[in-house]
Known about the structure:
By secondary structure, this protein is an alpha+beta fold. It has helices at 8-11, 60-81, 89-96, 104-119, 129-139, 151-158, 188-202, 290-303, 305-312; strands spanning 14-17, 38-46, 49-57, 98-99, 166-167, 173-175, 208-211, 215-218, 227-232, 238-244, 248-252, 282-287, 319-323, 329-333.
Amino acid sequence: xxxxxxxxxxxxxxxxxxxxxxxxxxxxxxxxxxxxxxxxxxxxxxxxxxxxxxxxxxxxxxxxxxxxxxxxxxxxxxxxxxxxxxxxxxxxxxxxxxxxxxxxxxxxxxxxxxxxxxxxxxxxxxxxxxxxxxxxxxxxxxxxxxxxxxxxxxxxxxxxxxxxxxxxxxxxxxxxxxxxxxxxxxxxxxxxxxxxxxxxxxxxxxxxxxxxxxxxxxxxxxxxxxxxxxxxxxxxxxxxxxxxxxxxxxxxxxxxxxxxxxxxxxxxxxxxxxxxxxxxxxxxxxxxxxxxxxxxxxxxxxxxxxxxxxxxxxxxxxxxxxxxxxxxxxxxxx
Length: 334
């Protein structure tokens, strides 16, 4: 099947501001004498998106070895979730319709995806990949009708979308119908962020900024203040900020990957209609864990404002910022 491109744009709306600022002498919480923690940074990719890690530690060698281990872990998880790799678990599942022995990570994410699909009444559905493939192929033609694929083709693809037809029994994954396919772009980057964050936490790192497609911070800034996250518009201008401490953030918007010049046809599909969702302009979710923030942002973007509160309430401690099409906004708390 056609491979999905990186979900880069919508993931890069969140930025940590001044994360690399120099630490003041005698930062609260650290000894004045002896080795002082300093900033160490790593940049790379995670599931095709730009990725970075920032952590504070007094031992530069230990920091670099930690980055190497985390990069190796990201690579391992890409071999599970990447739609770009023909040898990944998700590619095998989409190609064969069955994954006889799925990894613990694949089962965990597919299980979580089904749970979010259930609580969102199908607004979040990992099996929308046939709709993505249809639109990608259709708009690759020249010329393509601005109205999008014919209704009969859209409906045929939509009939393949049903999270309830993914069987996760006996440590495997199986599709109930030929032609089904999944994408985990709306949750897997959050999961990878959480896996790396948990590993760093277990190794004793207390001040960490992760941007691995989604954002997660450990602790507060070393000077004691919250991490400040800048929310940017399509032009790159920071339009508002969020303060985070031991939290994660994710954003969802149809402007990220578009199939046509107008942006009417984009990558976030409403499984109930088979069309791209246009109820909201953007959704930003903050939650304790990146997996939850990632899935909630997509689910709320598709479901719309009326259903947002009920969906958000399924994750304690979550909050959301909904940007409407007219650019007015509303804030919600679980």
